[in-house]
Write a structure and sequence with these properties.
Elements (H helix, E strand, L loop, with lengths): L3 E7 L3 H14 L7 E7 L5 H11 L4 E4 L6 H10 L5 E5 L3 E3 L4 H10 L5 E7 L10 E3 L5 H14 L7 E3 L3 E5 H6 L12 H13 L3 E11 L8 H17 L4 H24 L5 H16 L2
Parallel strand pairs: 1-2, 1-4, 2-3, 6-10
Antiparallel strand pairs: 4-9, 5-10, 6-9, 7-8
Helix pairs in contact: 5-9, 8-9, 9-10
């Protein structure tokens, strides 16, 4: 039986997937027979060509064409349903492994039956001088959210009660993940992680571990500020919070406070010569938040 299954959902990801797969095999520290890699494509334009190249380079990768593009979570649920290992790694195609991690993670799971989610230190580049591997829940006072985010990122500390592991790359125990229903497929993309955290903690209690000593790179540099992305985070948070009875008014108020402080920080950066692009996006977001705060 396989010990670890890796699920990668692709959508027009040709510029990323080959390097991502290569990083897996280059940094694997477990026997090949223990590892299973599954790629689920959500309707890429050039899926056939992409799969053909993957077969040429890594003929043991399991390739699945999804029946439809149901979003990030739905695609991962498809991959997980086809996995055979008890531990599953969810990995974005723009993630690169930069060191061996599998053996240590599997030992952690073998030694602790209560361990459900295992997160690692997310780097923006291979210099390892920047990380943002977890995010505070938006069910938190917005001012405290900004303070705790800055403090914990600087000190590289994680608190599962208040923070969720970033979804770009993390491990789950398949049995426990299936027991909570997997990804919520009504969420197309972004913001799924806090919902998963809430459901895992509600069912199993303390079951999430963050390991600051293990690293991966998430190739997210160059992404421009986008107000539609910010709005999506608000909308998904409102949906997630409704499940647990957290008031809509409190969620919006938290976002307003976060945005207000972030605008202040961006103003300071602008005075120091930085671009005002992020500030303008935050202005649009604040306008949106005030519109829905009725």
């Amino acid at each position: 039986m396989k010990r670890l299954s890796i699920v990668i959902v692709t959508y027009n990801s040709e510029k990323d997937i080959y390097d991502s797969l290569q990083s897996i095999y280059s940094n694997s520290d477990i026997p090949q027979e223990d590892l299973e890699v599954i790629v689920v494509d959500n309707g890429s334009r050039n899926c056939s060509e992409m799969f053909s190249r993957i077969r040429d380079e890594h003929n043991d990768v399991i390739l699945l064409e999804n029946t439809h593009n149901g979003g990030y979570g739905q695609g991962n649920n498809v991959g997980i349903s086809h996995s055979s290992a008890p531990i599953v790694m969810i990995m974005n195609p723009d993630v690169r492994l930069i060191e061996p991690v599998f053996s240590k993670v599997l030992r952690a799971y073998d030694g602790d039956d209560s361990l459900g989610i295992y997160g690692m230190n997310e780097m923006l580049d291979e210099k390892r001088d920047s990380h943002h591997s977890y995010i505070c829940t938006y069910m938190m006072n917005g001012y405290l959210w900004v303070l705790l985010t800055g403090l914990t990122n600087r000190m590289n500390m994680y608190f599962q009660k208040w923070q969720y592991i970033h979804g770009a790359c993390f491990f789950v125990r398949k049995e426990m993940f299936n027991a909570i229903g997997g990804f919520d497929e009504s969420i197309f993309m972004y913001g799924e992680e806090d919902d998963i955290r809430c459901r895992m903690l509600a069912k199993y209690g303390k079951c999430i571990k963050y390991d600051s000593t293990l690293h991966f790179v998430h190739k997210s540099e160059g992404r421009k500020p986008n107000v539609e992305y910010e709005k999506t985070l608000v909308e998904v948070a409102l949906k997630n919070h409704k499940k647990v009875g957290y008031p809509k008014e409190s969620t919006i108020r938290n976002f307003i406070r976060i945005t207000r402080l972030q605008m202040l920080i961006e103003k300071i950066k602008i005075h120091r010569g930085k671009s005002d692009e992020r500030y303008k996006v935050l202005q649009e977001l604040m306008s949106y938040l005030r519109q829905i705060n009725v």
